[in-house]
Design a protein that fits this description.
The structure holds two protein chains of two kinds. Chain A is of the alpha+beta class. Chain A contains two helices and three strands, in the order H-H-E-E-E. In chain A, strands 2-1-3 form a three-stranded antiparallel sheet, with no helix packed on it. The chains are: A alpha+beta, B alpha/beta. At the A-B interface, helix 1, helix 2, strand 1 and strand 2 of A face helix 4, strand 7, helix 5 and helix 10 of B.
Chain lengths: ~80, ~425
């Protein structure tokens, strides 16, 4: 896999928040956790900001590999 | 033997009649005299033409008896009522439309047409559709599929996988131009326009639907770009929805490496696909709501998490400071305790030392006193008190020998109440000395 998915970011963020809340985390660990949390928070927010869902179709190319059509943005006429 | 197409059958009676039945005026009809006897095969061919042409496909009610699936793939049985019976066949290629083979003694209605085997002249009722009382065959087919899946453990609730909470891409296996796709796209785009939707087109009704859905699922798995799949279609008749009860479809759903939500457009009935899918949605729209969390909610949750993290860190830092203060206070207290105890030790030592010193001095004083007493007893002065006198040289020192008293020697004679100046006039040493 490449960069962590939004879901992984969020799961880790929830974990970090919970760990920060518990008193048995040493302060320097807490600082490191916080730093990681802020980074992940930014990454997750960026994911949502740049993403624009599209409606595509799965097609089989001439060479037999599978891919999707370019698709159109998930806004406009299908939007209610 | 395949039944004939309707068009051809309807054109037959006239020619059959022309060939065998209606006598012709000039030279007579075939078979109307010993001379014009017709071969058996001509008779059975006529029979076939007449009978197959005379009946349109009919629904017939009766009881199934002697059902036998032949190894050639066709089903043979007898359909009977109280007084009559007829041989029936279901050609293997027609069986797909019949949900399940009927049971012995089952009351059924069968749609079919007469088929005559020209070799024997035997008429058989070729059945194309069949239904038992109370939808018995559908239920039986469902139960059979369900049992097969259950036997293979595919209905085990433990197999069900969680649906990803935040899919980036949703695959939809359905008809590319159906209402289901439209519903799914509109719900997802309204709730969360950051999610990609990829359509994996499949026929979702008709005989080809099961294979088409199976292939679409295989393509989705091979592509592996979707986080979750929705498989389904909008509402329709039981026959329209039947492909979602197909065992092949069920097994393909169970085998999907990607979690599957079934969304067959019916609220009440549960399809086999619903049983094997990781999650069942009542309608395609409901499936879309299930996979697409509302974007605004996600953003709010993210903000809350950020706030919670900052608050926790501030709290954690305050805790740290408090801990530090606590430690400092502890240290100060400990130091003070140490100092106090040291001071107490020094004081104690000092007192101890004084005491010991005093004791030592006292002991010395006692000894001195003792010595002094003894000294006093031994003192020559005590001897003088008893009447003796002590001669002392002018230079000091006691004179104890005659030799020290050479005539004319001046010396002091110490007596008990004073000194006497004296001079030696003569000495007489002892004879023995």
């Amino acid at each position: 896999m490449t960069s962590p998915s939004f879901e992984e970011h969020l799961a880790r963020l929830e974990e970090i928040a919970a760990q920060l809340d518990s008193a048995d985390v040493p302060l320097d660990t807490a600082l490191k956790l916080f730093e990681e949390g802020i980074q992940r928070l930014n990454a997750a927010q960026k994911t949502l900001a740049v993403a624009e869902g599209r409606l595509k179709e799965l097609v089989e190319r001439a060479d037999g590999t599978l891919g999707t059509t370019d698709g159109r943005p998930l806004t406009g006429d299908d939007r209610e | 033997m395949p039944p004939r197409g309707a068009g051809r059958v309807s054109s037959r009676p006239a020619s059959a009649a022309a060939r065998g039945v209606i006598p012709r005026a000039d030279d007579g009809a075939p078979g109307d005299s010993p001379e014009r006897a017709i071969p058996v095969s001509a008779l059975t061919a006529s029979l076939k033409d007449v009978i197959e042409g005379a009946f349109p496909p009919l629904w017939v009610a009766g009881e199934v008896s002697g059902f036998k699936p032949h190894r050639n793939g066709h089903w043979y049985f007898t359909l009977k009522d109280a007084t009559a019976s007829i041989e029936c066949v279901v050609w293997s290629r027609e069986q797909a439309r019949i949900p399940a083979p009927p049971d012995e003694g089952m009351q059924v209605v069968a749609l079919g047409a007469f088929s005559v085997w020209a070799k024997t002249g035997k008429a058989t009722f070729a059945v194309k559709q069949m239904e038992a009382e109370g939808e018995g065959l559908w239920r039986k087919a469902l139960e059979k599929t369900r049992a097969a899946l259950e036997r293979d453990g595919l209905l085990d609730p433990a197999r069900k996988r969680p649906i990803p909470r935040f899919p980036r891409c949703v695959g939809v296996v359905t008809s590319a131009d159906g209402a289901a796709l439209h519903d799914i796209v509109s719900v997802i785009s309204r709730r969360n326009p950051t999610i990609d939707i990829v359509v994996i087109p499949a026929a979702v009704q008709g005989d080809a639907a099961p294979e088409s859905i199976v292939r679409a699922l295989a393509r989705a798995a091979a592509w592996n770009g979707a986080d979750v799949l929705i498989v389904g279609r909008g509402g329709g008749s039981r026959e329209d929805l039947w492909c979602f009860n197909d065992e092949r479809v069920a097994r393909a759903i169970a085998a999907s490496p990607i979690p599957v939500i079934s969304a067959v457009g019916h609220e009440v009935d549960i399809s086999i696909a619903d049983l094997v899918a990781d999650h069942r949605a009542a309608t395609p729209s409901a499936a879309a709501e299930l996979v697409a969390p509302v974007l605004a909610d996600i953003l709010r949750d993210l903000n809350n998490l950020g706030t919670a993290m900052r608050a926790a860190l501030v709290r954690r830092a305050a805790d740290g400071r408090r801990d530090l203060d606590g430690v400092r206070a502890d240290m100060t207290r400990a130091l003070r305790r140490r100092a106090d105890s040291a001071r107490r030790d020094v004081t104690g030592l000092h007192r101890d030392l004084t005491l010991r010193t005093r004791r030592v001095v006292e002991r010395r004083t006692d000894r001195l006193r003792g010595v002094a007493g003894r000294l006093h007893v031994l003192s020559p002065l005590r001897t003088l008190e008893r009447g003796y006198a002590l001669p002392l040289a002018m230079a000091g020192g006691a004179l104890t020998r005659v030799a020290q008293f050479a005539p004319g020697t001046r010396f002091t004679l110490k007596v008990q109440d004073g000194d006497v100046d004296a001079t030696s006039t003569a000495t007489r040493p002892k004879e023995s000395a």
